[in-house]
Amino acid sequence: MSQHRSWMFVPADSEKKLGKAMDLGADVIIVDLEDSVAPQNKHQGREMAREWLERTKAQALDPEAPQRWIRVNALDTDDWAADLRAVMPGAPAGIMLPKALGPDSVSQLAGELYQLEQAGSAQKGTTRILPLVSEVPQAALTIGTYAGAALPRLGGLTWGAEDLSAAIGASRKRDANKNWTDAFRMIRAQVLLAAHASGVPAIDTLWDDFSDMEGLETAARNARADGFAGMLAIHPNQVEVINRAFTPSEEEVEEARRIVAAFASQPGVGTLSLDGKMLDQPHLQLARRVLGMDS
């Protein structure tokens, strides 16, 4: 599955939620060994995540099935290496790395993955990494450095606001109109630009009020309009809303086709007129992106 619209968190220690995960309609399932698993349940969570990966391995071969990712614990804990040893035999598509401090954190994780892939079921070099790049102030100040880093496993960039707000003592993350306040808006913009500069998907952070579907839809549509490829989800009801928001409408697809066809009919032309509007190469690039074509 090439789409990265909805990234759904599922706690690793919930047999009920794991049992439903592959049928939620999400593009990516992130089995979480970090925040949603209490310290005393970490070992159990690893075992359940490992069993889930084995149980769903055949289903995951279907190109329409969701990708299976694992969020391990942070590198400054004693848990992350044990997490990897437990789950890598199940060949997850990727590892989400929380509290990444910068490209060096991704490189450290990548080094461990190379060794474990050789001993497990995954082919060498295939396991991707999605770092959460904003959860501590030091990390937030390194976001731009991802753009110039040699990180062949980098599968995208995403960010979170909860841990950072606690770290900086922020009593709010959004203003009265539900817009991000300055620090979080700055981080979001850096994630978007650094991801595009690195040629990987930019994944927007979650909408934490899972009872507010209207707010989620607005946030998801804004994220796509801003250039994000997808969005994190914390509740099954959020998946359909996110998928819909990140899927081009029939009108958008038809307009994109007409723009591509217009340029194809006049090869070598840099600008042209269509329906009384002047179009140039950025319009063509956006149209090709809507159609899933190489830009």
Notes on the protein architecture:
With 295 residues, the protein is α/β, with parallel strands linked by helices. It contains 12 helices and 10 strands. It has helices spanning 15-20, 42-55, 57-60, 80-87, 103-119, 137-140, 162-168, 182-198, 213-226, 236-245, 250-265, 281-290; strands spanning 6-11, 28-32, 67-71, 94-97, 128-131, 157-158, 202-204, 230-233, 272-274, 277-279. The strands form 2 sheets. An 8-stranded parallel β-sheet has the order 5-4-3-2-1-8-7-6. It has a two-stranded antiparallel ribbon with strand order 9-10. Helix 1 links the parallel strand 1 and strand 2 (28-32). Helix 9 runs parallel beside helix 10 (236-245). The longest helix is centred in the middle third of the chain and has 17 residues, at 103-119. It is globular and about 65 Å long. It starts with 5 loop residues before the first strand and ends in a 5-residue tail after the last helix. The relative contact order is 0.10. The mean pLDDT is 91. InterPro entries: Aldolase/citrate-lyase_domain, Citrate_lyase_beta/mcl1/mcl2, Pyrv/PenolPyrv_kinase-like_dom, Pyrv_kinase-like_dom_sf. GO terms for molecular function: lyase activity. This is Citryl-CoA lyase. Residues 5-236 form the HpcH/HpaI aldolase/citrate lyase domain. Keywords: Lyase, Magnesium, Metal-binding.
